[in-house]
Amino acid sequence: MAASSEIQLDHLPSDPLLHILSYLSYRDVVHCSYVSKRLNDLCKHNPLWRRHCCNHWLLTDADRLQSGLSWCSLFKKFYSDLGRYIEHYVVLKKSWEQLKNFLQQRCPRMIASLKAGATEVELEEIEGQIGCKLPDDYRCSYRIHNGQKLVIPGLMGSMSLSNHYRSEVLLDVETAAGGFQLRKGMRRCLPLTFCFHTGLSQYLALEDAEGRRKSESFYPCPDQTAQDPSAIDMFITGTSFSDWFTGYVNNVVTGEYPIIKDQIFRYVHEKGCVATTGDITVSVSTSFLPELSSVHPPHFFFTYRIRIEMSRSASPEAACQLDSRYWKITTSDGNVEEVQGPGVVGEFPIMTPGKVHEYASCTTFSTPSEYMEGHYTFHSLANKEEVFQVAIPRFHMVCPPFREPPTRTNASTSDSTLFDKGDFCKEDDEDDNGDDIGRHRGIDVVAFEGSWCPRLT
């Protein structure tokens, strides 16, 4: 029968067979090559492998010419090196390229801080050192770029408020291994990021343990009300490394996160959160600060950035000055609070045509989600008796999902249950994040001085 099939295939024209093969995956093409000599010859057709090289390795005609190899040989070369990552490579490679192209234009000094990719041997040595397997998507990303040099600003975003500053570096795998956790409450967790100023780190769970799911990324948050110091709650930032990294990159390259003084700031602008009154437009973006929040006792810490802009087409007579602010704050349990006061963060900005005034403030909540809205009161510079209000659009502040350790959850509650609560803490315990890295790699961790803000400023 096999011989008969081969004879029949030998008499079929190549074009329809190649057309059929072009719809197959690279695995199916390889399998077909074993069916008969005729298919084996056709499966080496270069245009067939060009598609797979482009789809799976993002290679171009220029790459092939530079390599001096056929498309088939080029696919084999990449597969022998990166084949285990074929399900992750395209997504992560595209994210890295998008991020680098964006940084080249907006934050060029960050490009120089990226480290060359790690080798398979280096990653295997790290796994041997920590005694735990690294997720394939994490390994794939670190084959492309082995994190970032320990410099400021950090690739994973910054935040600045009063005397509180945070800038998270994407750790290289060697430094991350130095902070690998084996202690109770943080077992089998690998740090992803590190901030010199706060000691804050995001972690990657390498195994299912202590209420965490394997491959989740999170900020640890000590339970301040527990007797056991190892009781660690978690603010979840991603379900996998790919989810965490690509989501962050998308926010950067789409302009969701603003660039301020050559740094990426993790403020999120809610679509539609813009209000225009006459010649003045007000827009708001917000950010949750995990390093100043905790789950027990419940207290969320948010910062918000407000942009006030007067239209360039406004008449010079429209110039005005801000006198006061009014806020209406509604929490998720239905409580309403009203706050008013002079100026904004101690300033009374004057608005003229084309003028932009931006400021950041903060607030704290003890419920999982809240929203604020209100207005500013201005007076005209041409006629101080002329007073008017400018609307501040409603904006929401929602804590990321978080999880409590299984020791606190009820027996009927799954370890993986997510809770929507929040809280305040000055800082994670020393052993929770950056200090372990500092001890292993000689990082000088600046002491966190605390900057808890009142209910509103």
Automatic annotation (TrEMBL):
InterPro entries: ApaG_domain, ApaG_sf, F-box-like_dom_sf, F-box_dom, F-box_SCF_Substrate_Recog, Knr4/Smi1-like_dom, Knr4/Smi1-like_sf. One of its GO terms (cellular component) is cytoplasm. Residues 426-435 have a biased composition (Acidic residues). Gene3D superfamilies: 1.20.1280.50, ApaG domain, SMI1/KNR4-like. CDD domains: F-box_FBXO3. Residues 274-404 form the ApaG domain. Pfam families: DUF525 (PF04379), F-box-like (PF12937), SMI1_KNR4 (PF09346). Residues 407-417 have a biased composition (Polar residues). GO terms for biological process: antiviral innate immune response. The keyword Iron-sulfur does not apply. It comes from the Eukaryota. Keywords: Ubl conjugation pathway. Residues 405-439 are annotated as: Disordered. This is F-box protein 3. The gene is FBXO3.
